[in-house]
Amino acid sequence: MEAFAGFLKGIDNQDHRDRTEEVLRWVADTFPRLEPVIKWNQPMFTDHGTYIIGFSVAKNHLSVAPEQAAMIEFGDDIGAAGFAHTKELVRMPWKKEMDYGLLRKFIEFNIEDKADCKTFWRS
């Protein structure tokens, strides 16, 4: 979590900072082999140098970005959960409970799907 200390300090809203820290800690604890990094001023987790998942903070939500392949794979789950989304990210509102089950699906899918990936992003 040390990698994210500066990022977390920069979140003015204490509730948003606490939630973001909780989510980042959950990922780190649940998937200890993932490396926590900051790239493009965003907290991310990588595996053998390839991107697995990233996060960004907005006024009304925490954005979760698992890459488009995971968004396609779990499109029905995202829709069923009622989250707004784009092709690349899911908007998880601050006022809703964090969907750790969906987060786990994204991460497990990317770890497996990118096991042999030699680049940061999928090609």
CATH domain fold name: Aspartate Aminotransferase, domain 1
CATH architecture: Alpha-Beta Complex
Radius of gyration: 14 Å
Cα shape: globular
Spell out the helices and strands N to C: HHEEEEHHEEH
The main sheet comes to: 6 strands, antiparallel
As for the number of domains, it is 1
Number of helices: 5
What amount of the residues lies in strands? 15-25%
Q: Quick one: how many beta strands?
A: 6
Organism: Bhargavaea ginsengi
InterPro entries: YdhG-like
Domain YdhG-like: 16-111
Protein name: YdhG-like domain-containing protein
Task: Describe this structure as you would to a colleague.
The protein is α+β, with helices and mostly antiparallel strands. It has one domain (about 1-110): Aspartate Aminotransferase, domain 1 (Alpha-Beta Complex). The chain is built from 5 helices and 6 strands, in the order ααββββααββα. Strands 1-2-3-4-6-5 form a 6-stranded antiparallel sheet. The protein is globular and about 40 Å long. The protein starts with a helix and ends in a 10-residue tail after the last helix.
Features:
Aspartate Aminotransferase, domain 1, 6-stranded antiparallel β-sheet, 6 strands, 123 residues, YdhG-like, alpha+beta, YdhG-like domain-containing protein
Give a quick rundown of the structure.
Strand 2 (42-47) and strand 3 form a beta hairpin.
Q: How does the SSE layout of this entry go?
A:
Blueprint: H1 5-9, H2 14-30, E1 35-39, E2 42-47, E3 50-57, E4 61-65, H3 68-73, H4 75-81, E5 84-85, E6 90-93, H5 100-113
Antiparallel strand pairs: 1-2, 2-3, 3-4, 4-6, 5-6
